[in-house]
Amino acid sequence: MNPSFGSLFLLAIVGIAALFVLIFVVVMFNFIGIWIRARIANAPVGLFTMVAMRLRRVPVGVIVDTRITAMKAGIDIPSDLLEAHYLAGGDVGQVVLALIAADKAGIALDYNRACAIDLATKGTGKTVLEAVRTSINPKVIDCPNAAMGRSTIDGVAKDGIGVKVKARVTVRSHLDRFVGGATEETIIARVGEGIVTAIGSADSYKEVLENPDRISKTVLVKGLDSGTAFEIVSIDIADVDVGENIGAKLQAEQADADKRVAQAKAEVRRAAAVAVEQEMRAKTQEQRAKVVEAEALVPQAMAEAFRAGNLGIMDYYRMKNVQSDTNMRESIAGTDKPREEAK
């Protein structure tokens, strides 16, 4: 019984050893080429480190090749740092290329700063390598940006004449402020505000046309690049044109507005006068009604006088004759009373 147990134990040991050998062979088959390449390039990465990378779903070839590139440029970056940046969602290739470009240009840029810039620019269409290149070779920004729907920056001098300006701003990346700093849109907005202020402070549009550099000088002293990811190198006025006479236009609009106000007030007064006239006509009709009412009482009074014996028939006829004579004389004289009675 003991020999059979010993044989089984020996077979188990041999099986385990064979399994380890198989695993080792598989590992060597998958990583030996990369391991040798790293060794030859003097950028060694351990086999167990590569296996751990594969288990963490990190592309071993990308990390090793990136480390080799950095070492060949004289920058020693441990594979653990490269792997950590990859797992954080960064682009290790762009970071290494940016570090190499900065080192060759004599710009101080450490690995952590480069990683921070790479993560900050993720999803913006820009890269850390582009930021370093802009720091080395400044780029030109049109102000205003044509994509924003405006081709010129419009300002008004003190004499009321408008001035249209196109400017070009030369900037370089400020790597220390790149993370958390304002973008190009802020630079464009600040420069536009400074140009409008400079034009508005001029006594005449002729001063702006004669000395366009006064705009750039006035804007530069304001420190517009503070808090941004860029450093303004220069502001150049590309074009200056005369715009509309804004002062005259505003005066014309004000005169038209005053005229409308005066017309409205006159209409109010006319309406009030019409209302008063209608009120007086109503009062006149009311008084006429009272006269008609009083005249209607005359026959009653005469009848009462006849009954009381205070008025005789001859008195009545004499009164009628007098009225007839009066009407005839008024008709001959051309007075308005008979006409009114005719009406």
Unreliable stretches, pLDDT < 50, 5 or more residues?
337-343
Radius of gyration: 52 Å
Q: What is the helix/strand order?
A: HHHHHHHEEEHHHEHHH
Question: Which term fits the overall shape?
Answer: elongated
- Nearest-integer average pLDDT: 82
Q: Quick one: biggest sheet?
A: 4 strands, antiparallel
Please report which band the strand proportion falls in: under 5%, 5-15%, 15-25%, 25-35%, 35-45% or over 45%: 5-15%
Tell how many strands the DSSP assignment holds: 4
In terms of structural class, how would the helical and strand content be classed?
alpha+beta
Spatial separation of the terminal alpha carbons: 156 Å
Q: Helix and strand layout, with pairings?
A:
Elements lengths: L1 H39 L6 H9 L4 H13 L6 H9 L4 H14 L5 H10 L7 H9 L2 E5 L9 E4 L4 E13 L10 H17 L4 H6 L2 H8 L9 E16 H63 L4 H21 L2 H7 L1
Antiparallel strand pairs: 1-3, 2-3, 3-4
Helix pairs in contact: 3-5, 5-6, 5-7, 8-10
Give structural notes.
It is elongated, with a radius of gyration of 52 Å. The protein is built from 13 helices and four strands. The protein starts with a helix and ends with a helix. The model is unreliable at 337-343 (pLDDT under 50). It is α+β, with helices and mostly antiparallel strands and 343 residues long. The protein has helices spanning 2-40, 47-55, 60-72, 79-87, 92-105, 111-120, 128-136, 184-200, 205-210, 213-220, 246-308, 313-333, 336-342; strands at 139-143, 153-156, 161-173, 230-245. Among the domains are: 14-136, no CATH class; 139-245, Band 7 domain (Tetrahydropterin Synthase, Chain A, 2-Layer Sandwich), CATH 3.30.479.30.
